[in-house]
Write a structure and sequence with these properties.
alpha/beta, Spore Coat Polysaccharide Biosynthesis Protein SpsA, Chain A, seven-stranded mixed sheet, Glycosyl transferase, Glycosyltransferase_2, membrane, transferase
Length: about 300
């Protein structure tokens, strides 16, 4: 069975057109559509109810207020009954006629097949920010994909239901699954310009995406060894400060005045900050070690 999870937010202009187009390209049998209304304040909920009255394979779940795409997807994954779970946005930029490419690729046994918007029809800013995140994922995680945040994805049941998304984590689903040992690939798909409705993405999103990315980096790479993160960062600051102070000490030895130089204050600040950051990591490592010890002791009792 195939479950299609569609997160929806204020899409009254496009939802009926999207449904008709999607219906043409889904298997006729053993398919369910799960619309997750993310607190829409327009006529979207009423239009969804109308569609559900016409098709018994449509299921609708709604949030009382806008909670974000990550939580909408998580709810959809929990409610899905299929062995394979497809996600697609309702804006018609990801074309339903490309679904067959993902289904065909899934026969090779991949846990996640992501659509690669090879000729992406979005703003220059969105394309550049996407390239930056894709590059970072390749450097830090070793996952070489061209498009992390495509809305068109096909999952195995186990892969989809392992996800517990929040905040902006939906942008990094391939990374999350890859880190957990699931196999990840992508196939090129056709991407269209948005013709109906309004985009929910604006330039301010990048200021939320970057913190999410660094949160993921810390949680996935250093959550079990915080000293490796804080120690390296603190060590770099300390060494820079030490070099500055050593240079100033050399100048003082030559007879020059250094007490009124801003560089002296900067060097001291770097040394103190480096030590602080290092000991934050040390304390975090100690707390983690003690909590694990307590867990082991409680299991032995």
């Amino acid at each position: 069975m195939l479950s299609v999870v569609i997160p929806v937010y204020n899409e009254e202009e496009v939802i009926e057109v999207f449904y008709k187009e999607l219906s043409k390209h889904l298997p006729k049998r053993d398919t369910e559509m799960i619309f997750v209304d993310d607190g829409s304040i327009d006529n979207t909920p009423s239009l969804l109810k109308k569609l559900a009255e016409e098709n018994s394979n449509i299921r609708i779940f709604s949030f009382r207020k806008h909670r974000g795409k990550s939580e909408a997807l998580t709810l959809g994954f929990k409610k899905a009954s299929g062995d394979m779970i497809l996600t697609i946005d309702a804006d018609l930029q990801d074309r339903p006629d490309q679904i067959g490419k993902l289904i065909e690729k899934s026969k090779e046994g991949w846990d996640l097949i992501s659509g690669w918007r090879k000729n992406r029809k979005d703003s220059f800013f969105k394309k550049i920010s996407s390239k930056v995140f894709n590059l970072i994922s390749s450097i830090f995680w070793g996952l070489k994909v061209n498009d992390l945040n495509s809305g068109l994805k096909l999952y195995t049941k186990d892969a989809a239901k392992s996800l517990n998304l929040y905040g902006g984590m939906h942008r990094f689903i391939p990374l999350l699954l890859f880190q957990e040992g699931f196999s990840v690939t992508e196939v090129p798909v056709i991407h269209d310009k948005r013709r109906l409705g309004k985009s929910k993405y604006n330039i301010s999103k990048v200021f939320t995406e970057m913190p999410d990315l660094f949160t993921m980096l810390f949680l996935m790479k250093y959550a079990k060894r915080p000293l490796h993160f804080f120690g390296v960062f603190g060590g770099i600051l300390f060494i820079l400060g030490f070099i500055i102070l050593a240079y100033l000490s050399y100048l003082r030895f030559l007879g020059e005045r250094i007490g009124d130089r801003p560089l002296l204050l900067f060097g001291v600040l770097l040394v103190l900050t480096g030590l602080q950051v290092f000991f934050i990591g040390f304390i975090a490592d100690l707390i983690l070690h003690l909590s694990k010890k307590d867990d082991i002791d409680s299991k032995l009792k």
